[in-house]
3-isopropylmalate dehydrogenase (Loigolactobacillus jiayinensis), 690 residues
Amino acid sequence: ATIAVLPGDYIGPEIMQAGLAVLKAAAATTNFDYQLKSYPFGGAAIDATGEPLPEATLKGAQAADAILLAAIGGPKWDDAPQRPEAGLLAIRKALGLFANIRPTQVIPALVPRSPLKADIVSGTDFVIVRELTSGIYFGEPRELAADHAIDTMVYQASEIERILRAGFELAQTRRRHVTVVDKANVLATSKLWRQIAEQVAPDYPDVTVDYEYVDAAAMKIVQQPTHFDVIITENLFGDILSDEAATITGSLGTIPSESRGISGPSLYEPIHGSAPDIAGTGKADPLSMINSIMLMLRNSFQANTTADKIAKAVAATLAAGIMPPDLGGTATTESMTNAIIEQIK
Amino acid sequence: ATIAVLPGDYIGPEIMQAGLAVLKAAAATTNFDYQLKSYPFGGAAIDATGEPLPEATLKGAQAADAILLAAIGGPKWDDAPQRPEAGLLAIRKALGLFANIRPTQVIPALVPRSPLKADIVSGTDFVIVRELTSGIYFGEPRELAADHAIDTMVYQASEIERILRAGFELAQTRRRHVTVVDKANVLATSKLWRQIAEQVAPDYPDVTVDYEYVDAAAMKIVQQPTHFDVIITENLFGDILSDEAATITGSLGTIPSESRGISGPSLYEPIHGSAPDIAGTGKADPLSMINSIMLMLRNSFQANTTADKIAKAVAATLAAGIMPPDLGGTATTESMTNAIIEQIK
Ligand SMILES: CC(C)[C@H](C(=O)O)[C@@H](O)C(=O)O
Ligand SMILES: CC(C)[C@H](C(=O)O)[C@@H](O)C(=O)O
């Protein structure tokens, strides 16, 4: 297994190092065999080459069996001609990573960390399936003039069908309930989403479907998060709703995500940003990266034994009260990581 | 004062009747002089004329000093060639109602109704200033074909400047803190928003400005709602964020909004929908309509004495434990309304 490693910026390299140390320890006990290849990406790549996604990084990512990304961006590149985020959009597009899978799960131990009341948030367990390579993120024309600006939200029917099917298939492995989120009372693209959803749904007779406007969905995520199982939505709505959803878990620093292509490697990354404010302080929570690695082990390598090892070690560490600051504890990135590695050994 | 009355659909006419009864009682004690003219709008207008915004309704609204709208839409018109919502977009555009003002205030008595924990939500008091007549709601081209669809997000610099100035001016009457919400790391229109905000901000040296991406703002509304004073944002982001924000108050059924034009009448309406599920049951909360009327009295007619009368009567009624079902009580639309009228007399 070849893994492309993109450490990125600010806390990115710190949590990547932590995650890889945990992976190494777990792999040693289970004979999971892998090779790491590290590439500059984002701000680090701009500094090194002038480009957020250098050719060699893209090539390396394309050739790998899976990609690990930590986090990119930050104030340092605010006025750079190209921003680190441009690299993220470019790699998504180049690798055809059309399905971003974002789990929102509230485990009982973390209910007290949620900003929501316990009776509302308890039992929350849903996944947002966000379209990631089309919509207003990529549509043309795009224009920025002194007196006006234009962005274009375009969807091909085939792009909509593909992501809907990915979501319906995921729902079949879960509680068989899909919520398609759109703004079909206003947008033409949303009307097409809804039409295609209505055509595709009968192919999954075991799955219940409901439709929700994006504004109503933004309400329900806060009011009644246990309503959801699988939310399928377009790129921009998915960006907003998945961050809103992550917040209600109260454990942003622990949440991984997967971006899947049609074929080729998936990309795994924490959902949080590069946190320039805590970079270098040892306060970064390594769990999001460790959870991203677990997700990679399971979904790209079917290495469930190795993933289970890590999962148990993390659970034991948390149960022992060793927690990072964002979960209310005092463990540093390093002490947290070492504690997990001790548990693995 | 001439007030155009658009009762709308489902619970719309029920809460409109309640609101107007309260207005009548309060006006009688303060000699506030007004004339009502009622027009069909939304689904009711489709039934009567085939159009959600008939010419006579638009003319009447244009000629009025203020417009009261209850709520429109519902499943009855799902397959109508024109939907009730089209009337809403059309009246916003025709009257140039470019600034939608949505207060999000959590009064101490309602903290227990919020889905958020008390320590997070207590003291929340902010206003979302949403651009309402441009962006992806109105941009051309808009296309719906079998194999693709297109929506266009366009902003003129003048449209952005106008709404920003409205927001900054509002902030000067409040805690002098503006948050401009955009997606400037991806969208050209957002980059223009941010450029213009940076140009406009120095004209309001007493106002602090910060910038937030829409996904981060969706997080912060749940995590730290007391951070905000005035949020200024474009049409679609405002739609999503203002509904999310309304939810954290736990009192959706009480929140009014104002849509302001450059000149001409403002439109006042509850932020909730027409609630087909409770229409005819007496469960509709009249407070959103009553609060809309108070807002109208203050902002369009400077009739503060009349508005104060109503405010005191509402507070006394709630303090006496008379509450609608959505606030945890058992009062009907009618009994709630009568109790408030009794307090006025
Ligand atoms: C950094 C930004 C371009 C990106 C996005 O909007 O997709 C991020 O918010 C995300 O969700 O991965
Ligand atoms: C009904 C719909 C078109 C409308 C909107 O999206 O503007 C509504 O959600 C609102 O916020 O007033």
Notes: Residues A 185-186, 215; B 85, 88, 239 surround 3-isopropylmalic acid (ligand 2) (CB under 6 Å).
